[in-house]
């Protein structure tokens, strides 16, 4: 055992060195999005590319390979257990993937995606898909190649999906999305047809930015975000950066005329942030010290944003606070504001979509991505495919490509396989929340008094403590007692929105 | 020439890679001092140490050594001119030094200094020199070794001084400091004995912190600091970080009851900041793209802080602004506030010292450092040596070591050879300023109307444009037409303070 200990200790040192480079890059990225002066953009991109390259070099270096291979042998011989076994298994998988991608290929893809960002921004601004098409064609070509290099059993899309949601295949996603699509299409039609529409005007609350900052900070604190181990700042698009569990930074964006937008962005990022703060410091730098998957991460942010933050009980607590302490929403009742923040309306833009229609935006992107990687579609087909699918799923007409196929940053960045995690997150959230409800007596009654700690503690003790030791589907199964299943989400939607829209 | 071009281009690439690592480390350091949550301290130290190590490894790597050696041959054969020659000459000198220091030695010194910081902080808090002595002994031992490893002609202290002020020897410093000491001791005695003492109470202006922030930001702008290429933030001790000429960050510290303290800290850092912003982007990553020396850097900050910011004309402009727009210092005259910000009073603490007594604090530290490195003193002698020298130079009695030998951070960090640059900066500032005065008609009359741009432009065109291509003494000589000379400083002091104290 002494020999394995030494080997493992060296392995942890090598992982720490990679983690230090990644952590430095995260500070640079966070700084770039929050505080960096504009004249620094070019050099910053070079510094970040250099650090990424250095981290990749270490992750495929001979010493790292030797130490990891030696540990893999011990794993196969049954000489590693528990966390160590999980760590080596996950790292080996990562390493196998990295090794299959030639340095040349990695660099070309990274360069292409970095330089495509501005092309995409300009194309979107001008709603000119043709201007982005050559970049997209090359990116799709390389992503198809990547799938081939990595290898796959079912669909080539599996090889890409696996980066974001390991343990979930294209067939798994399809199996979950198909009934979800049918349910949602029908349900949304009934919502739209309902004569009982909430008053949307109530949800637009005008508040000075300084006051919004204070209110969002307080909300983050009351949901359990630890400001000794994190920060809340401002950026154009809200995001969460994790440098270390002791340094988790979330951002939000303030518009004077729309306080609730900042509030819900903050709650969403707090959901990501408290998960990151709870991850193991001991296993920092290894997959066990990280989140289970992108989809699982999203389940945490969506749970706090939607299942908690858009609940009636939340507003029974928070509306009086806003009325008494900030003089906001005077004369409004909790039921009114609850309905106003839960309006369901088919729309063009994913990031503005409500809780119910959101998943159809994801189904559409999944269909397109899979079709592209499997060769069913070519990039030039996309604007028409998009228009057809969004008409079919959501019944809306696309007026231009800016509000259609060009709206998301993901494809310009090469993030094929990322989108499904958004919908998986919604499904996991509903399933985990249902279990928390049955485990914690009076969970939602507590919300009425601002008591969010029982849910925080439940998540910490049943879910977060596993870090990335388990793959997301297994983690959901362990935490809830049953495998991932969309029925919790559909029941939740039927109950909540059925009541609001009286359908 | 094609071959030299190729070689030089590769050299610039290798320098850029080192610069990227250093630049990343500067962001981490700036973040640590300004925004980092407290729980991140331990990991941050490790990340920074790792990046420093990586930068050092590259600076002594075989490829870097080969390319630089090849260029050095071309230089010796007279095949490099101008900026390229200066760059290779300076880089070769740096490289020679780095190579002479074994990795083992560098790491021990770095570890020792990093771990000595907290020992020094605690020792200072408890005024317990004995608690810091073992660390200081080992640091001095290593610094003596360093001098031996690097080599020297005159004093071993030369080898340490050269890091901060290349081109200046211990004998040069001694030659300048001796008459300065005599002049100042006598002059200060006369100031103290003068019956015409300004009213110190006027200089303590109480202003809400938010207003101070606004005023300091405006001051930075009006002195020429470019916020598109920099930031102004808050930290415990003000400092300037340069990530790149397009990203220069200065900090200040606000105390509600003392606005002028923040104002002068800001002006001082602006002096550093505008110099950094003006350095060459083309030569980023090489000594030519950097400041000429620490002393020269200090000359810029001190010029703006003292020769401009503490001038009568500055207050003739700024006092009405403060009175009319901020309602501050009402009923005070420009002559009164001018005298109040120019009080000369021998004191214990260097960083609180006025323009005149400041240099004696530096002379004292220079005497001690040189004595330690040359073996005249041992670390255990320091408290008594300190007490004796400060009594001799400034006529003040040290009540405890916290306010004596333990007051500065430098020795715990291994910065032997740094202190002289503070006094050299004051001397260079006076000499450069005298030349600017004779070159720019009505320079100080312009200050009366808030016109600082002519001085900025003069410095940019005559001084900053050289970057680090020349060593500081040469740069002073070129810019002013005569070699560094303390007489400009002493004349300035006699004129200004002679008038204020009527002596």
Question: What labels would you give this structure?
Answer:
Neurolysin, domain 3, homodimer, globular, mainly alpha, 503 residues, 20 helices
Number of strands of chain A: 3
Strand order of the largest sheet of chain A: 1-3-2
N-C termini distance of chain A: 64 Å
Name the overall outline of chain A. globular
* Name given to the CATH architecture of the domain at 200-343 and 425-501 in chain A: Orthogonal Bundle
Give the helix tally of chain A: 20
Helicity level of chain A? 55-70%
Give the quaternary arrangement of the chains: homodimer
Q: Describe the biggest sheet of chain A?
A: 3 strands, mixed
Low-pLDDT regions of chain A: none
CATH class category name of the domain at 200-343 and 425-501 in chain A: Mainly Alpha
Question: Structural class, from helix and strand content of chain A?
Answer: mainly alpha
What's the order of the H and E elements of chain A?
HHHHHHHHHEEEHHHHHHHHHHH
CATH topology of the domain at 200-343 and 425-501 in chain A: Neurolysin, domain 3
> In percent, how much strand structure appears in the residues of chain A?
under 5%
Biggest interface, chains and residues, is: A-B, 35 and 35 residues
Describe the structure.
- The structure is a homodimer of 503-residue chains.
- Among the domains of chain A are: 2-100; 200-343 and 425-501, Neurolysin, domain 3.
- Helices cover 64% and strands 3% of the residues of chain A.
- The first copy, chain A, is built from 20 helices and 3 strands.
- Chain A has helices at residues 2-34, 41-59, 62-76, 82-100, 103-125, 129-150, 157-164, 170-193, 209-222, 259-278, 294-308, 312-326, 334-340, 358-374, 382-394, 420-439, 443-447, 453-462, 472-480, 487-501; strands spanning 230-234, 240-244, 247-252.
- In chain A, strands 1-3-2 form a 3-stranded mixed beta sheet, with helices on both faces.
- Chain A is globular and about 70 Å long.
- The interface between A and B is medium-sized, with 35 and 35 residues.
């Amino acid at each position: 055992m002494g020999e394995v200990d030494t080997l493992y200790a060296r392995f942890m040192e090598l992982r720490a060195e990679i983690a230090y480079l990644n952590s430095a890059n995260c500070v640079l990225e966070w700084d770039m999005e929050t505080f960096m002066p504009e004249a620094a953009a070019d050099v910053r991109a070079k510094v970040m590319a250099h650090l990424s390259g250095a981290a990749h070099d270490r992750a495929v270096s001979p010493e790292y390979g030797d130490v990891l291979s030696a540990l893999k042998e011990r794993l196969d011989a049954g000489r590693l257990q528990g966390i160590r076994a999980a760590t080596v298994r996950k790292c080996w998988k990562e390493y196998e993937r990295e090794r299959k991608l030639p340095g040349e290929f990695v660099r070309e893809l990274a360069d292409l995606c970095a330089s495509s960002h501005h092309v995409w921004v300009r194309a979107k601004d001008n709603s000119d898909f043709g201007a982005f098409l050559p970049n997209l064609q090359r990116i799709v070509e390389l992503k198809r190649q990547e799938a081939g290099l990595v290898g796959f059993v079912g669909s080539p899309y599996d090889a890409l999906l696996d980066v974001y949601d390991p343990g979930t295949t294209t067939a798994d996603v399809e199996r979950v999305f198909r009934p979800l699509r049918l349910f949602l299409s029908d349900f949304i039609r009934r919502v739209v047809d309902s004569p009982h529409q909430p008053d949307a005007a109530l949800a637009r609350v005008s508040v000075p930015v300084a006051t919004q900052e204070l209110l969002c900070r307080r909300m983050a604190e009351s949901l359990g975000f630890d400001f000794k181990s994190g920060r809340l700042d401002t950026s154009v698009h809200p995001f969460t950066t994790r440098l270390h569990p002791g340094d988790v930074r979330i951002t939000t964006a303030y518009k004077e005329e729309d306080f609730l937008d900042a509030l819900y962005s903050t709650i969403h990022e707090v959901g990501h942030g408290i998960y990151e703060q709870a991850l193991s410091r001991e296993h920092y730098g290894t997959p066990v010290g990280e989140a289970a998957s992108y989809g699982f991460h999203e389940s945490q942010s969506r749970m706090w944003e939607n299942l908690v933050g858009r609940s009636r009980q939340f507003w029974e607590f928070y509306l009086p606070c806003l009325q008494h302490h900030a003089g906001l929403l005077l004369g409004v009742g909790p039921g009114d504001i609850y309905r106003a923040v839960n309006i369901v309306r088919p729309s063009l833009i994913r990031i503005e979509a409500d809780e119910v229609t959101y998943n159809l935006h994801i189904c559409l992107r999944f269909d397109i991505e899979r079709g592209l990687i499997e060769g069913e579609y070519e990039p030039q087909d996309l604007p028409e495919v998009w228009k057809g699918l969004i008409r079919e799923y959501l019944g809306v007409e696309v007026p231009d490509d800016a509000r259609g196929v060009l709206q998301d940053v993901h494809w310009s960045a090469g993030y094929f396989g990322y989108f499904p995690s958004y919908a998986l997150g919604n499904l996991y959230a509903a399933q985990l929340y249902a279990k928390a409800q049955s485990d914690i007596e009076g969970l939602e009654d507590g919300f009425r008094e601002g008591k969010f700690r029982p849910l925080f503690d439940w998540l910490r003790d049943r879910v977060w403590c596993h870090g990335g030791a388990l793959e997301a589907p297994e983690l959901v199964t362990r935490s809830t007692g049953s495998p991932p299943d969309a029925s919790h989400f559909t029941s939740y939607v039927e109950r909540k929105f059925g009541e609001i829209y009286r359908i």
